[in-house]
Amino acid sequence: xxxxxxxxxxxxxxxxxxxxxxxxxxxxxxxxLRSETGLITLDPxxxxxxxxxxxxxxxxxxxxxxxxxxxPVEQLAEHSTFRETAYLLINGELPTEAQLRRxxxxxxxxxxxxxxxxxxxxxxxxxxxxxGMISSMINALRAFYPSIPERSEEEEINITFARLLSKVRTLxxxxxxxxxxxxxxxxxHDLSYCANFLNMMFDSPVxxxxxxxxxxxxxxxxxxxxxxxxxxxxxxxxxxxxxxRVNLYAAISAGISALWGPLHGGANQAVIEMLQEIYDSGGxxxxxxxxxxxxNDPFRLMxxxxxxxxxxxxRARIIEKVCNRVLKKxxxxxxxxxxxxKLEEVALRDSYFIDHNLYPNVDFYAxxxxxxxxxxxxxxxxxxxxxxxxxxxxxxKESADDPKWKLYRPRQIYAGPLKxxxxxxxxxx
Length: 429
Ligand code: SDX
Prior knowledge:
Number of strands: 6
Low-confidence stretches: none
Strand content: 5-15%
Structural class: mainly alpha
Order of helices and strands: EEEHEEEHHHHHHHHHHHHHHHHH
Shape: globular
Bound molecules: s-citryldethia Coenzyme A
Largest sheet: 3 strands, antiparallel
Radius of gyration: 24 Å
Helix content: 40-55%
């Protein structure tokens, strides 16, 4: 295969270099397109446009492949922990025993938040969505941790990574406890990353929380599966905001805001709301399938479809297994699970979903796992954000380490009115 493509415009031929990825993916390198041809490309939603080369996550949407730093997500879900996977994504390699221990100590050392942050939560409007709160609080962290001149830049940024990874859990659990008017539970030095979060969420002076290792395992898998997903909407937002050289807290806050949307990370909450609506209307998914197929109806089947996966999202299958495992362990039935399974079965037999390559994505079963663990529904997107944080950090770090790190500034094709003069008020219609 050649290493260039030819573009013929107005009878002139231009050679466009091809860039080839480590998995053989090919792309047109159009970095000099406008300067050489005067042309730009137009690609609303960037479905055909790569904004970077990245070594972090590989996805094959046709084959349903997802790998972090080359390791299949199925193997990480089976053998790793979220803390270890976070280290892998950020540093590029699995940690040695000593590296993992140092990482754990650093996470523990930075797990508390400044006591003044409690007043932020307490003065936040009651009933505010936790995603808005967490995005604000993460941005506010910068005010408590201005840069430390005497530390080396690398040491400072690694401490910032640990602060974000560790404090996001504390802030999330704090927002929940304060929303209930309950006593805030502090992180403990003797609990693992996931167990600490569950304890901060559910421990109470009158009902001490007993850590259930099966739920800790389920949460590890849940967060491993959410840890990165190459250039999705929220990750692209972190890279775009970060490209202006703003501090990392602000870039991550932007990522949380993007993830909040129901088309993105907010879908796990929207799936449960949809399943509940089907349940409340008698359990027949047919009317919802019909609405999803109606081009005049903006309704979308939540938890279905994906910009990249045109087959099963590999994460959805693993999460479905976690669903079954957790419900069995808790000896619990979730009336929404059979609704979800029936909806999946009906949809996957329907030509509309087959023709549009619409399959369950990571969000379809995620909410059922979170319900079983006891997470309130409005915190489902927050659970996604905690899981995605190491991916956002790794992607930001990769762009910041790139010597060609450039400010994001896309172009456009102007389609508005031609030049015209200002019209005094008296002459306007
Ligand atoms: C995540 O990008 C990532 O990697 C994201 C993510 C990650 O880990 O970061 O994987 C996490 O965000 C998963 C997706 C969660 N969102 C949902 O479950 C919301 C429901 N899904 C859809 O809104 C939709 O599938 C998107 C937004 C996820 C992707 O849509 P695209 O690629 O922008 O495609 P589109 O909206 O242009 O739809 C293409 C066609 C349209 O039909 P036509 O007009 O061509 O006939 O497919 C149809 C759409 O109507 N379609 C659906 C549908 N999704 C697409 N029809 C009904 N129900 C759906 N869910």
